[in-house]
Amino acid sequence: MKEDLERVNRLYKYIQRLMNQEDSKQLYERYKSDFEKVTPQEIFEVFYMILQKGIEPKEILVILDKVINVFYKGLISYQWNRPEKGSFLDFLMMENCALLEKLEAIKEILNEKDLLAKKKKLIPRINELVQFNQHYLKKENILFPYLEKKMEKFNGLTIMWSLHDMARTQIKKVMEYLESETCKEAEINEQIGSLFFILHGIVKKEELILFPAASEVIEKNEWREMQKQSFEYEFPFIPRPKQQAESLQESRSNDNMNADINGRYKFKTETGELDFEQIVLLFNALPVDLTFVDENNRVRYFTRPKDRIFPRSPAIIGRDVDKCHPPESVHVVHKIMDSFRSGKKDTATFWINIKGKIILIQYFALRNAQGEYKGVLEASQDITEIKNLEGEKRLLGWEE
């Protein structure tokens, strides 16, 4: 509708002016009537327009909460169909409720008078919040790809991904401070207050904007697909659904069935031949996470080893690789791929520490017989045990 489009343009101008540090009270009075009618879909439109102007997500985060607060009246009154019980979206909302209960329990501990006793109780509680990363991963790897395929405006989800990274960073920061010998009560309260602000803010943005908007564009069969894929992840702070084993098995078996209906098709080379089932079994048996991105920067394939290091979901197939990484690290991805495409480089290697494990991450340029760039292979491997190897082992060493 013309009226809705005009409102979106006015809201876009409001955010531009706010980012230019114009007087917020005067701006509020000028655009107040638009705030009261704003919808979740319009918010995605507005922020996508901002991103299209070259503004980085981290720049938007500076004014994001102020904007959401002025939109609150319109959003809280917005009517939308709540998810069916036991659906993908229902479980995400249940996880949010469970998170808020965890935060309330932490809030009670902050009233503890003795600093040492407070620290002793806080450390396991804050460390427990790391589990909620699974909630964010399900959004990033399942929900976001489905939304991005619906409409361009959902590319604005990079802003929410940045919020996830803020939460991850702040949890780590609070843990490091609590475990330090120099931590003080005032600083503890300040650090945890910042963490609460981020986590509560994400919940609010999900339930006032993201979930209502998703409910209006995602179809029933797509919600079912997302639900199946979600069983590859944990369900933080809520009981794991009983359907888990059945859905996971169905998801994996369907992959094989789609690959080779009758088992008759063969992949032949000068070094031998394999059917599609054998290829899948071989790739998944490798103790390495493999992801293939084609020459157009689209994710085309990933393996499913027994203990995958970095979660992947079928929803990412066909997704632009830019959207598979946090906004703040996309420039590194571009640098690697541009160097591979130009022929300047053929490999890139990194290693990181995750939960006491050393993870080797390697990128390999793929080129055909004519030397043309055909994509990149990402390989990630846990090398903790390999790095600690010494001497030789020539005997089997199995325990009977």
Automatic annotation (TrEMBL):
PANTHER family: BLL2471 PROTEIN-RELATED (PTHR39966), DUF438 DOMAIN-CONTAINING PROTEIN (PTHR39966:SF3). This is DUF438 domain-containing protein. InterPro entries: Hemerythrin-like, PAS-like_dom_sf. It holds the Pfam family Hemerythrin. SUPFAM superfamilies: PYP-like sensor domain (PAS domain). One of its GO terms (cellular component) is plasma membrane. It comes from the Bacteria. Gene3D superfamilies: nmb1532 protein domain like (1.20.120.520), PAS domain (3.30.450.20). Residues 89-214 form the Hemerythrin-like domain.
